[in-house]
Automatic annotation (TrEMBL), chain A:
InterPro entries: DUF2170. This is DUF2170 family protein. The lineage of its organism: Bacteria, Pseudomonadati, Pseudomonadota, Gammaproteobacteria, Alteromonadales. Pfam families: DUF2170.
TrEMBL record, chain B:
Keywords: Coiled coil. This is PspA/IM30 family protein. Residues 209-229 are annotated as: Disordered. Belongs to the PspA/Vipp/IM30 family.
Amino acid sequence: MNIHTIADHLNSLADNSDTGMSFDCQPISGEVDVLQISIIGREEIPVFVSVTEDQILCISYLWGVDEVKSDSIAAMHESMLEMNIPMPLSSFSKIGDKYVIFGALSINSSYSDVEHELAVLSNNALEVIDDMSDYLN
Amino acid sequence: MSIFKKIMTAVRGGASEAGEAIIDANATRIFEQEIRDAENHLTKAKRDLTGVVAEQMAAQRDVERLNREIAEHEGYAGQALEKGDEALALAVAEKIATLESELATQQQALASYTGNADRLKELVKKSERQVAEHKRQLSMVKTTESVQKATSAITDNFSSSNSKLLSAKDSLERIKAKQQKFDDKMKAAEMLESEDSDVSLAAQLKAAGIGAQDSSANSVLDRIKAKQK
């Protein structure tokens, strides 16, 4: 399992994915290979996938610290913590000055697990932005 | 300092700069070497354990055999006494004494093998737990580094592609608008389809001479004639 085999699988699905979503994959080269996955109709919030020795990490960027209303940051953190467990399969984190939502899968997951993860992560991301929009500029 | 704290300190302390490692590469290599060493020890301990358990089983078998032989000879000695053959009974008793001393030696060996096996089993379990724990810690370090490297690749890609980063709210608005447009299209398509079917139904009715018919020249003439009357 690496980003290229994941891309091949998602491309081969075309319009016939179980999730009803169409994925557009674009590898980004760097010290660590990353796959940028755009879901058709949701191109603004892509999912980034990287594969390490023991896990597959799927990350979507939510918003930057600078987008949070200055007097709302503590309340937002608390809401995010409270939502973390109820939210299916995904969790929150922060990379640098960006809040992210992510899911980690075992390296032994099946392609359909990965596909399911991507769909759930994308749905969660949209819902979280909607739910947290009161805290955002 | 725990690995967790090291990662926290490094991330907070601005080591999130691209290219800067959480824990220097040398320390990671040493850690990996330690894990490999521990795994080697583990393999050796498991091999030793196999040997000790084999000896333990052999000693156990010897103890059982000796016990059996002693019981057997005690039977013989009894029979010799019943027959009044004191000399034979004494000879058998001497044999029993030899067997018993052999039994004592074997029992001692068995106890020692059992002790060794237990100790080795405990050691193997402990080492296995330690190796798993080290691997988990190494995975944390490597994942943090991988995420940082991935982030810098993503950031580089964004800035080179000139794509303007939208705010989360704007992105969501756009996605919702696209979804709305898609839904509208679906609805429009449905409506058109149903209109189409209305049209085709009307055509069928007309062909069958049912319902409103096109006005023909004859029918117009009839109407004018009727007015003139």
